[in-house]
Amino acid sequence: MNNPFSATSAARFGTKFGRDVKARTINNKLIEAVLTSCEPRAKQLVEQVDSGGSQVSRHRAHTSVANAAVLARQVSALPVDNLSKMVVDPADSKPTEYALATGQAAVHRLRILDQVYGPGTRTLLQHCGLQRGMRVADIGCGVGMVTRLLADLVGPEGTAMGIDVSADQLEQARSLAKASGQKNLSFFQGDAVDTGLPHGSFDLVYCRFLLLHLRQPTAALRQMYSLLRPGGILVCEDGDLTSAGSIPASALNAFADLFGQLAPIRGVDYTLSRHLHRLALESGFAQPNIRIHQPAIAVGEGKSLLVLSVIEASPAFLDAGLLTLEELGSTVADMRRATEDKNVLALMPPMTQVWATKIS
Fold it and tell me: What kind of fold does domain 104-309+340-357 have according to CATH?
């Protein structure tokens, strides 16, 4: 059966406006409507385009609404709560290297990410020299999941500070920390490459899935070096998004393909973990230790991490021209089926763990 969506996809509204912000807003709000099966909302948004004096014809607009409903049916079975909150609208925020959601929109995926990688993180922190009573920092803390773990591990006599550039992330981090009842942690808004905090402030500095999102990862590592006291410990975990996939090969491989194509457009390196040991050396850390592990998941909620990440990053993929809205719907639907297939083993991005001591 022919799918008419390609000729009238919401993404094509943008062709009448070039790279206009309004066009990208409408595009991504239509994606939101598609992913939540909200045809009335889609129709309302299309009418707003027409009333705003666009050159898009009413016939094409209403055809897009009908096709949005078709795409909605393809993805409506996704086991995700409130998909609309996961859709990132790049027109509503400043340009950034970060392609995924922040704040409340990020909590669901980050909780699943922590299910997948959290046990390895805890084991690493218990092995690297972390002790009770330490003052520790979590750089690029997001919604503070590892910050809360650090606060637990250092005990009430220690302190943990989460640092992130995103106010939305920190709002969620503070809310979740308050709900946990932990008293020995705090959050601070700052850039990973220049936090503004005093040198030598911490006994241990940690980051996870941070450096691959930065255009200046070495500058961030050097900032971490300066934040450590002499004898302080760096603990860094980062991934290679292009090495995720499945056994046997399946639609889940789209995760690696899409992020691999997006990286040079964003000016970042989603294969950064391959170079993490060298980057630590170049940043002044002598004799860094290294481990690599790759979670493999056959069943369970953690298996959905790849498809959830593609959904969150879909506006970035569309904005970069890597796929059309029709292709997005087809990709997500295929990834969902692979996620639910018990015969498909999902391979998460390999995680490189590096830890080292600041000698002087």
Answer: Rossmann fold (3.40.50)
